[in-house]
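EI: anyone free to look at a 105-residue chain?
SC: sure, send it
EI:
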Amino acid sequence: MIVKELKLMNEIKLQVDKMTNQKLAEWFNTTLKQITNKKKQYLKKLEEYCEFEPFRGGVEIKKVFKECYCKNANYQLIRQELPKTWNKNGLDTCSHVSNTIYKNH
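SC: here you go
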């Protein structure tokens, strides 16, 4: 199943063109129902990847910044910042570390 998800994410790329909600769902690797129910949330995520104009039933992409959608983009940042912010004495908590990383970025 993981291979199928990776294959889907690699095949679907943003292009300057009209994109229906179904295509958006495929690009975000989710269902059409999720896209229609949480349209504002997904459009806000889409702003990081392209410049677009929404219309009923989809979006018209004007300019692409990143072609592929990476669902777990924050994990790379956390992997880099965790060793820098974790207290080496062993008296630290995950909440403190996450708040520190959030404030710095």
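EI: The two ends are 33 Å apart (CA to CA).
SC: 👍
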